[in-house]
Write a structure and sequence with these properties.
- The structure is a single chain.
- This protein is of the alpha+beta class and 187 residues long.
- The radius of gyration is 27 Å and the shape is elongated.
- The protein contains three helices and ten strands; from the N terminus they run H-H-E-E-E-E-E-E-E-E-E-E-H.
- The strands form three sheets. A four-stranded mixed sheet has the order 2-10-9-6, with no helix packed on it. A three-stranded antiparallel sheet has the order 1-4-5, with no helix packed on it.
- A hairpin with a 2-residue loop joins strand 9 and strand 10.
Length: 187
């Protein structure tokens, strides 16, 4: 396969021939790799559930919860695997009950701490029931706001510290951040 660089060959004096050779090899390998992968790809397999999944089709995640601090939260998800192998989210149909409501509160499927201690959460659905061990520590302690843990994730999610915004080399409107929060100590 011969690659022809139309319009680019005039720059050959500025860029060494070795660079052009490497560029040609890279372009060739990326162009040929999908063709090779398509020819050697195995046929998609038919899903067959494992025998142990069929014996216990109802699962709750996580199976153990540890909440530390007053702002801690945990979402509970319930999954049911049908005999044909199809997995369904049955969280909306689940009835969640905290054994000791003085330790934690439930709002839908989100658990929040109220007091230190240990208890269990009973999860009941038409497909089965399970219990989750819950441990709460430092429920009354309000941790200080951390720039690295509380503010930087907001910048990253909002796109504030990307190259087109405040993460640019000169920042924007007098406010400069490191690119993608790479240097949180400097920010």
């Amino acid at each position: 396969m011969k690659l022809d660089f139309v319009g680019i060959t005039s720059m050959s004096t500025a860029i060494p021939k070795l660079t052009w050779t490497l560029l040609a090899v890279l372009l060739t390998s990326f162009a040929v790799r999908p063709l090779i992968a398509a020819e050697t790809a195995p046929a998609p397999a038919v899903f067959t559930p494992k025998p142990e999944d069929l014996t216990k089709p109802f699962h709750v995640y996580p199976n153990e919860i540890s909440l530390t601090g007053s702002r801690a939260r945990q979402t509970i998800v319930c999954k049911f695997t049908q005999p044909d192998g199809v997995t369904r989210d049955v969280t909306a149909a689940a009835k969640l009950t905290v054994t000791d409501p003085a330790i934690a509160a439930l709002e839908g499927n989100i658990i929040t701490p109220l007091a230190d201690g240990k208890t269990t959460i009973l999860v009941q659905t038409p497909n089965g029931q399970e219990t989750i061990d819950l441990t709460v520590k430092n429920a009354k302690i309000e941790p200080p706001i951390s720039f690295k843990l509380d503010v930087m994730p907001v910048f990253l999610r909002s796109g504030c510290n990307v190259g087109g915004c405040h993460g640019a080399a000169r920042g924007r409107d007098g406010f400069r951040l490191s690119l993608f929060g790479f240097d949180a100590d400097g920010d």
